[in-house]
Design a protein that fits this description.
The protein contains ten helices and no strands. With 270 residues, the protein is mostly helical. 53% of the residues are buried.
Length: 270
């Protein structure tokens, strides 16, 4: 696995810094393509759900059953899965609703009339807290991307792309209030960019504190938790966000397409 270290770090960095792409979209486009965002967020959810349940969960179960035996291994796999869900749910619970990065924001919000004069501390505070919330929220995603890429580079690439897609609207969510409050595009972009750095920081923490103890049992528990985190993110964040961007069935079509592409890619690597 050590030969995949650089790739794993690189993929985690790519996924995290996609918040900067969202920020740039807010500055340099005048219209939010909501249909495209709906499809891509649904696609991202499809990739995450399929790869979590078909690949990651199964790998965790095999590792834990081999190491612990059939009954303890199965129980530990399920415990790790729901433990991952509880972790990400707890993080969401402590993020105030007004600074939740998954509240819908669009490029059009940048063009609303208002006091872009650096004298709106409430909006600036909201944008700053949104950046902090994204940073906290993305930390376990960084661990998930890093550990997955470390074990299986093809799997890591799929997860990194899916997470990068869902980080783009988060970049918009940071940039809109900060720019609206200050009129400073550089400041808005910097906060958006920095909020994505928590993902590679998560990778560094995983490398420093988890790698030394990475045996079959630890690997299985981490992978089971990663599967839970990914499924929770998909059901609680990506699909609702996709539906808010577009009222039709585009999100579900994107979901099915994401599952199909993920299934095909896994078949090609058999």
């Amino acid at each position: 696995m050590t030969e995949n270290l650089l790739l794993a770090f690189g993929l985690t960095l790519f996924a995290g810094l996609a918040t900067g792409i969202g920020s740039l979209l807010a500055f340099f486009t005048s219209h939010t393509n909501t249909k495209f965002l709906s499809v891509t967020l649904g696609f991202s959810a499809g990739v995450m759900i399929y790869v979590s349940m078909v690949e990651i969960f199964v790998k965790a179960k095999v590792a834990l059953v081999d190491a612990m035996g059939v009954v303890p291994g199965n129980w530990l796999t399920v415990g790790g899965f729901f433990g991952g869900m509880l972790l990400i749910a707890a993080i969401d619970k402590f993020i105030p609703k007004q600074s939740n990065p998954h509240e819908l924001k669009t490029v059009e919000d940048m063009n609303q009339p208002g006091p872009i004069d650096g004298k709106n501390p409430d909006l600036l505070k909201m944008g700053t807290f949104t950046a902090l919330a994204i940073g906290i929220h993305n930390f376990p995603e960084g661990i998930a991307t890093f550990t997955s890429a470390l074990q299986d580079p093809a799997l890591g690439i799929a997860i990194a792309v899916a997470i990068a897609i869902h980080n783009i609207p988060e970049g918009i969510a940071v940039s809109v209030p900060v720019y609206f409050a200050t009129g400073d595009k550089k400041k808005a972009f910097k906060l958006s960019f920095l909020s994505g750095l928590s993902e590679p920081i998560g990778a560094i923490v995983a490398y420093l504190f988890l790698m030394p103890f990475l045996n079959d049992v630890m690997f299985g528990i981490i992978f089971a938790a990663v599967a839970g985190i990914m499924v929770f993110i998909s059901l609680d964040e990506l699909l609702p966000a996709a539906k808010r961007y577009d009222e039709s069935h585009l999100a579900i079509y994107g979901l099915i397409a994401g599952m199909a592409v993920m299934a095909l890619s896994l078949l090609l690597f058999i």
